[in-house]
Records
---
Amino acid sequence: MIRIENITPRKNVVKYQTQPEIIVEIPTIAEKIISDPIYTTGNETLLIVKNVDNSEVTLNSIVNHKITIKSLTSVLIKTDVGLIDDEWDELLLEKGSCVQFQFVQGNWYILSSDGIKLT
């Protein structure tokens, strides 16, 4: 029998070279008031639409996943992808309505609403 002492076990070391992660933070705009006939949402959390006869707002899922829209005019809401509540391509908000939308797994969902919505 051979006895070996004081021998350090050999370790296989694998080196990985990684690139540092670059994290870009887009500052959130808390609220925005618009009077545009056509508008695509940015990174605001609250959008108030007023001082225009009609407006068409497209929900942008790339830069925003949650937004509340207060309409002080007639506002047609559209999506960049998916449906609203798995059912609608667009939603008409009448004057005075307020709706909170959240983008979840490819669709926009209404989390809360206090106004009239017509499709």
---
Amino acid sequence: MRQTDYQHNTPEQARGYVEAALALVDELSPPDDLRVAVFTKACDLFAAKQVVLEHAAVAPQGLGALLRQ
């Protein structure tokens, strides 16, 4: 199985997620004891991405000819 590592976010994207999370916390105005939790979860949700690992299967030589018949 081949695995390639890539950065999940550019610095610009990270800045956007933090700004969006700050705006959401400001809009929701949670109680002071929940502000950190709301901000943290908002950042997580805005930045959430799916990571996909691909397994490249190699077909034996000649199998393509058999499948085309």
---
Amino acid sequence: MKVIIAIVVVALLGFVGFKVWEYWTQTEGDKPLAGNPTGEVRPTSLQGLPPQLEPRLLEAQRRGPDTFKEFIDSIKKSPLVKDPRLAWIELDYVVMIASRDPAEAKRLFAKIKERTPPDSPVYPRIKSLEKTFE
């Protein structure tokens, strides 16, 4: 009888150990990448805007929607500025003008959404703003 109880106890310990190991490997796989622990996209990490334009971008954002719009219009002409960073900057502008000019914000949002593919790093932000601007 002692042998049967010992076999059952060893089998239960093995089963519990396996389940703990399985749970641990599953939670390890669910962790975001080490380089970005929150899983969120940082705008400065996106490609498409030369580093020398970063200070001008921050200054234009700080000065308000009119200056920001002028900045966006000027950088769109440059072949160095492109998506996904351009889309992120334009989404910042859309959010900035949403309360002042909702019709324009919706129009611009639709244009940005149309040109942004689902595999873009900006796409999760578009999905989060979608209900607001449609």
---
Amino acid sequence: MSKKILSLADLDITKKCEEGYEFEVTDDSTGKGTGLFLTVIGAHAPVLTNYVQKSLNQRRAQEAMNEKRGNKARVRPIEDDIEFGTELSAKRVIAWRGISDECTHENDMTLCRTNPLIKEQILKASEDLANFTKSSAKS
């Protein structure tokens, strides 16, 4: 039995995370499907990692500028962090079925702001790398 040799491209999880994964949103109380299907990208997709890096670099630069000017350190309110998390969740949604409104970033934000249970399911599906590597597991 010969052992399969992998290339670096085979091991590129960031590329695989760019491919959408569709899942059905479940009702937390019953565990049954709701008829709402969301397509998400994986947590390691470059669009997400680039967004995190850019946002955090901007925060750090602003803090450094304030410090350099002799301004008091600004305590960042928790609401900023919550909004950052909502933005990061919404950026993971690339399509949906079962919602009459168009899937836009603004509507993704509304969905994540108004339904924390769906937001949790988006994060769970996006963070589960098995959702993005199943096809490559075949040898």
